[in-house]
Amino acid sequence: MSAILEVREVTKTFGGVVANRGISLSVGRGEIVGLIGPNGSGKTTLFNSIVGQHPIDEGSIRFEGREISHLRVGEIARLGLVRTYQQTRVYTRMSCMRNMLISMPHREERLRDLFARFPREAYEEAEMLLDFVGLYPKRNLPAGELSFGQQKLLEFAMALMNRPKMLLLDEPTAGINPTLINGLVDRLLRVNEDLGLTLLVIEHNMRVIMNLARYIYCLAHGELLAEGTPDEIRDDQRVIDAYLGAH
Ligand SMILES: Nc1ncnc2c1ncn2[C@@H]1O[C@H](COP(=O)(O)OP(=O)(O)OP(=O)(O)O)[C@@H](O)[C@H]1O
Protein backbone atom coordinates (compact mmCIF):
# COMPACT_ATOMS: atom_id res chain seq x y z
CA MET A 1 0.00 0.00 0.00
CA SER A 2 1.45 3.42 -0.94
CA ALA A 3 2.21 5.78 1.93
CA ILE A 4 0.11 8.92 2.21
CA LEU A 5 2.24 10.21 5.11
CA GLU A 6 5.98 9.65 5.51
CA VAL A 7 7.77 11.00 8.58
CA ARG A 8 11.55 10.60 8.39
CA GLU A 9 14.04 11.19 11.21
CA VAL A 10 12.08 14.09 12.70
CA THR A 11 13.63 15.87 15.65
CA LYS A 12 11.97 18.70 17.59
CA THR A 13 13.41 20.42 20.64
CA PHE A 14 12.01 23.08 22.97
CA GLY A 15 14.96 24.84 24.56
CA GLY A 16 16.85 21.97 26.18
CA VAL A 17 13.96 19.48 25.98
CA VAL A 18 14.13 16.98 23.12
CA ALA A 19 10.41 16.28 22.56
CA ASN A 20 10.99 14.13 19.44
CA ARG A 21 14.28 12.53 18.46
CA GLY A 22 14.78 10.93 15.04
CA ILE A 23 11.18 9.72 14.68
CA SER A 24 10.25 7.84 11.50
CA LEU A 25 6.84 6.45 10.69
CA SER A 26 4.73 5.76 7.68
CA VAL A 27 0.95 5.66 7.18
CA GLY A 28 -0.53 3.90 4.15
CA ARG A 29 -3.41 5.44 2.24
CA GLY A 30 -6.72 4.24 3.69
CA GLU A 31 -5.13 2.81 6.83
CA ILE A 32 -5.93 3.41 10.51
CA VAL A 33 -2.68 3.74 12.44
CA GLY A 34 -2.29 4.23 16.19
CA LEU A 35 0.24 6.36 18.05
CA ILE A 36 0.64 5.44 21.70
CA GLY A 37 3.09 6.12 24.53
CA PRO A 38 3.15 7.27 28.14
CA ASN A 39 2.42 10.89 29.08
CA GLY A 40 5.11 13.26 27.84
CA SER A 41 6.51 10.77 25.31
CA GLY A 42 6.13 13.25 22.44
CA LYS A 43 2.93 12.23 20.66
CA THR A 44 1.26 15.66 20.57
CA THR A 45 4.51 17.32 19.55
CA LEU A 46 4.73 14.98 16.56
CA PHE A 47 1.13 15.83 15.57
CA ASN A 48 1.91 19.53 15.84
CA SER A 49 4.98 19.09 13.63
CA ILE A 50 3.03 17.13 11.01
CA VAL A 51 0.25 19.72 10.65
CA GLY A 52 2.65 22.68 10.58
CA GLN A 53 2.04 24.20 14.00
CA HIS A 54 5.74 24.62 14.58
CA PRO A 55 8.90 24.14 12.52
CA ILE A 56 10.91 20.96 13.04
CA ASP A 57 14.64 21.01 13.77
CA GLU A 58 15.58 18.09 11.55
CA GLY A 59 14.02 15.52 9.27
CA SER A 60 11.37 15.35 6.60
CA ILE A 61 7.57 15.10 6.52
CA ARG A 62 5.95 14.11 3.23
CA PHE A 63 2.23 14.07 2.48
CA GLU A 64 1.26 12.40 -0.80
CA GLY A 65 4.92 12.53 -1.76
CA ARG A 66 5.24 16.28 -1.20
CA GLU A 67 7.51 17.81 1.45
CA ILE A 68 5.27 19.74 3.86
CA SER A 69 7.56 20.45 6.81
CA HIS A 70 8.03 24.07 5.70
CA LEU A 71 4.30 24.73 5.13
CA ARG A 72 1.87 26.43 7.50
CA VAL A 73 -1.25 24.94 9.12
CA GLY A 74 -3.71 26.43 6.59
CA GLU A 75 -1.64 25.32 3.61
CA ILE A 76 -1.39 21.78 4.97
CA ALA A 77 -5.13 21.67 5.73
CA ARG A 78 -5.84 22.67 2.14
CA LEU A 79 -3.79 19.68 0.98
CA GLY A 80 -6.23 17.51 2.96
CA LEU A 81 -4.33 16.86 6.21
CA VAL A 82 -6.27 18.02 9.28
CA ARG A 83 -6.03 17.41 13.04
CA THR A 84 -8.32 17.52 16.05
CA TYR A 85 -7.32 18.41 19.61
CA GLN A 86 -7.41 16.80 23.08
CA GLN A 87 -9.48 19.71 24.30
CA THR A 88 -12.39 20.55 22.06
CA ARG A 89 -12.21 23.77 20.09
CA VAL A 90 -15.84 24.56 19.40
CA TYR A 91 -17.42 27.99 19.77
CA THR A 92 -19.66 27.30 22.75
CA ARG A 93 -22.10 30.20 22.21
CA MET A 94 -22.66 29.40 18.56
CA SER A 95 -25.11 26.76 17.39
CA CYS A 96 -23.82 23.40 16.23
CA MET A 97 -24.79 24.33 12.66
CA ARG A 98 -22.85 27.58 12.80
CA ASN A 99 -19.80 25.77 14.15
CA MET A 100 -20.05 23.40 11.20
CA LEU A 101 -20.44 26.16 8.63
CA ILE A 102 -17.46 28.17 9.77
CA SER A 103 -15.35 25.00 9.48
CA MET A 104 -15.84 24.96 5.74
CA PRO A 105 -12.77 24.44 3.57
CA HIS A 106 -10.46 27.32 2.78
CA ARG A 107 -11.90 29.51 5.52
CA GLU A 108 -9.52 31.51 7.63
CA GLU A 109 -10.49 32.34 11.20
CA ARG A 110 -11.46 35.89 10.34
CA LEU A 111 -14.18 37.75 12.11
CA ARG A 112 -16.16 38.42 8.97
CA ASP A 113 -16.37 34.68 8.26
CA LEU A 114 -18.23 34.24 11.53
CA PHE A 115 -21.08 36.34 10.16
CA ALA A 116 -20.90 35.39 6.50
CA ARG A 117 -23.73 33.74 4.56
CA PHE A 118 -23.19 30.24 3.29
CA PRO A 119 -24.31 28.42 0.15
CA ARG A 120 -27.17 25.95 0.41
CA GLU A 121 -24.83 23.00 -0.24
CA ALA A 122 -22.90 23.96 2.87
CA TYR A 123 -26.06 23.67 4.97
CA GLU A 124 -26.85 20.31 3.40
CA GLU A 125 -23.34 19.03 4.00
CA ALA A 126 -23.41 20.27 7.61
CA GLU A 127 -26.78 18.64 8.27
CA MET A 128 -25.67 15.38 6.71
CA LEU A 129 -22.52 15.26 8.83
CA LEU A 130 -24.39 16.22 12.02
CA ASP A 131 -26.77 13.38 11.27
CA PHE A 132 -23.81 11.06 10.73
CA VAL A 133 -22.45 11.78 14.23
CA GLY A 134 -25.93 11.65 15.81
CA LEU A 135 -26.21 15.36 16.58
CA TYR A 136 -28.84 16.38 14.02
CA PRO A 137 -31.57 16.82 16.68
CA LYS A 138 -29.27 19.24 18.51
CA ARG A 139 -28.20 21.20 15.44
CA ASN A 140 -29.72 24.51 16.59
CA LEU A 141 -28.51 24.33 20.19
CA PRO A 142 -25.47 26.32 21.31
CA ALA A 143 -22.49 23.95 21.25
CA GLY A 144 -21.85 24.82 24.90
CA GLU A 145 -25.02 22.96 25.87
CA LEU A 146 -23.64 19.69 24.55
CA SER A 147 -21.86 17.26 26.86
CA PHE A 148 -18.07 17.06 26.51
CA GLY A 149 -18.40 13.82 24.55
CA GLN A 150 -20.98 15.34 22.21
CA GLN A 151 -18.69 18.34 21.69
CA LYS A 152 -15.99 15.90 20.60
CA LEU A 153 -18.40 14.36 18.11
CA LEU A 154 -19.20 17.87 16.87
CA GLU A 155 -15.51 18.62 16.48
CA PHE A 156 -15.08 15.41 14.53
CA ALA A 157 -17.95 16.42 12.22
CA MET A 158 -16.39 19.90 11.88
CA ALA A 159 -13.11 18.32 10.79
CA LEU A 160 -15.01 16.33 8.15
CA MET A 161 -16.40 19.60 6.70
CA ASN A 162 -12.88 20.15 5.41
CA ARG A 163 -13.22 16.96 3.36
CA PRO A 164 -9.80 15.83 4.48
CA LYS A 165 -7.87 12.94 2.96
CA MET A 166 -6.28 12.24 6.31
CA LEU A 167 -7.30 13.06 9.89
CA LEU A 168 -5.00 13.19 12.90
CA LEU A 169 -7.09 12.55 16.01
CA ASP A 170 -5.62 13.49 19.40
CA GLU A 171 -7.21 11.29 22.07
CA PRO A 172 -10.68 11.19 20.52
CA THR A 173 -12.19 9.17 23.37
CA ALA A 174 -10.61 11.00 26.34
CA GLY A 175 -13.20 12.15 28.85
CA ILE A 176 -16.22 10.65 27.12
CA ASN A 177 -18.52 7.95 28.47
CA PRO A 178 -18.38 4.30 27.30
CA THR A 179 -21.58 4.50 25.24
CA LEU A 180 -20.35 7.50 23.29
CA ILE A 181 -16.91 5.86 22.94
CA ASN A 182 -18.48 2.90 21.14
CA GLY A 183 -20.47 5.25 18.91
CA LEU A 184 -17.37 7.27 18.08
CA VAL A 185 -15.25 4.19 17.29
CA ASP A 186 -18.03 2.92 15.06
CA ARG A 187 -18.10 6.21 13.16
CA LEU A 188 -14.32 6.32 12.81
CA LEU A 189 -14.43 2.86 11.25
CA ARG A 190 -17.23 3.99 8.94
CA VAL A 191 -15.47 7.12 7.64
CA ASN A 192 -12.42 4.96 7.06
CA GLU A 193 -14.33 2.27 5.18
CA ASP A 194 -16.97 4.35 3.40
CA LEU A 195 -14.98 7.50 2.58
CA GLY A 196 -11.51 5.96 2.48
CA LEU A 197 -10.32 8.50 5.05
CA THR A 198 -6.86 7.72 6.45
CA LEU A 199 -6.59 8.05 10.24
CA LEU A 200 -3.63 8.51 12.58
CA VAL A 201 -4.92 8.29 16.14
CA ILE A 202 -3.32 9.15 19.49
CA GLU A 203 -5.15 7.16 22.11
CA HIS A 204 -4.58 6.21 25.75
CA ASN A 205 -7.50 3.79 25.84
CA MET A 206 -5.79 0.51 24.92
CA ARG A 207 -9.02 -1.34 24.21
CA VAL A 208 -10.02 1.34 21.72
CA ILE A 209 -6.71 1.57 19.88
CA MET A 210 -6.26 -2.21 19.72
CA ASN A 211 -9.69 -2.52 18.07
CA LEU A 212 -9.31 0.46 15.79
CA ALA A 213 -5.75 0.43 14.46
CA ARG A 214 -4.25 -2.11 12.08
CA TYR A 215 -0.73 -0.94 12.97
CA ILE A 216 0.62 0.89 16.01
CA TYR A 217 3.70 3.02 16.77
CA CYS A 218 4.76 3.45 20.41
CA LEU A 219 6.85 6.41 21.59
CA ALA A 220 8.76 6.69 24.86
CA HIS A 221 10.94 9.59 26.00
CA GLY A 222 10.58 11.26 22.60
CA GLU A 223 11.86 8.26 20.65
CA LEU A 224 10.22 5.46 18.69
CA LEU A 225 10.21 2.50 21.07
CA ALA A 226 8.28 -0.13 19.10
CA GLU A 227 5.99 -0.65 16.14
CA GLY A 228 3.81 -3.50 14.98
CA THR A 229 0.34 -4.96 14.77
CA PRO A 230 -1.90 -4.63 17.85
CA ASP A 231 -1.00 -8.21 18.85
CA GLU A 232 2.72 -7.54 18.51
CA ILE A 233 2.46 -4.31 20.52
CA ARG A 234 0.33 -5.93 23.22
CA ASP A 235 3.00 -8.59 23.79
CA ASP A 236 6.03 -6.31 23.45
CA GLN A 237 7.88 -6.27 26.76
CA ARG A 238 9.43 -2.84 26.01
CA VAL A 239 5.95 -1.34 25.62
CA ILE A 240 4.69 -2.99 28.79
CA ASP A 241 7.75 -1.74 30.71
CA ALA A 242 7.36 1.81 29.33
CA TYR A 243 3.77 2.00 30.55
CA LEU A 244 4.48 0.38 33.91
CA GLY A 245 7.52 2.59 34.41
CA ALA A 246 5.43 5.67 33.71
CA HIS A 247 3.04 5.02 36.62
N1 LIG B 1 5.67 24.18 23.71
C1 LIG B 1 6.48 23.46 24.49
N2 LIG B 1 7.47 24.05 25.19
C2 LIG B 1 8.31 23.34 25.97
N3 LIG B 1 8.24 22.00 26.13
C3 LIG B 1 7.29 21.36 25.46
C4 LIG B 1 6.35 22.04 24.62
N4 LIG B 1 5.51 21.11 24.08
C5 LIG B 1 5.89 19.92 24.57
N5 LIG B 1 6.94 20.05 25.39
C6 LIG B 1 7.66 18.96 26.10
O1 LIG B 1 7.90 17.93 25.15
C7 LIG B 1 7.73 16.66 25.77
C8 LIG B 1 6.69 15.86 24.99
O2 LIG B 1 5.39 16.42 25.20
P1 LIG B 1 4.10 15.99 24.39
O3 LIG B 1 2.99 16.87 24.82
O4 LIG B 1 4.43 15.95 22.95
O5 LIG B 1 3.86 14.51 24.92
P2 LIG B 1 2.58 13.58 24.79
O6 LIG B 1 3.10 12.21 24.53
O7 LIG B 1 1.64 14.14 23.80
O8 LIG B 1 1.95 13.65 26.25
P3 LIG B 1 0.41 13.45 26.74
O9 LIG B 1 0.09 12.00 26.51
O10 LIG B 1 0.48 13.79 28.19
O11 LIG B 1 -0.44 14.38 25.93
C9 LIG B 1 7.34 16.90 27.21
O12 LIG B 1 8.51 16.83 28.00
C10 LIG B 1 6.80 18.31 27.19
O13 LIG B 1 6.97 18.93 28.43
From TrEMBL:
> Per the record's keyword annotation, is ATP-binding included, yes or no?
yes
Can you tell which superkingdom this protein's organism belongs to?
Answer: Bacteria
Does this UniProt record's set of keywords contain ATP-binding?
A: yes
The UniProt keyword set, sorted, is: ATP-binding, Nucleotide-binding, Transport
Q: What InterPro entries does the database record attribute to this sequence?
A: AAA+_ATPase, ABC_AA/LPS_Transport, ABC_transporter-like_ATP-bd, ABC_transporter-like_CS, BCA_ABC_TP_C, P-loop_NTPase
The record's listing under Pfam families reads: ABC_tran (PF00005), BCA_ABC_TP_C (PF12399)
Q: What is this protein called?
A: Branched-chain amino acid transport system ATP-binding protein
Please tell me the species this chain comes from.
Inmirania thermothiophila
> What lineage does UniProt assign to this protein's organism?
Bacteria, Pseudomonadati, Pseudomonadota, Gammaproteobacteria, Chromatiales
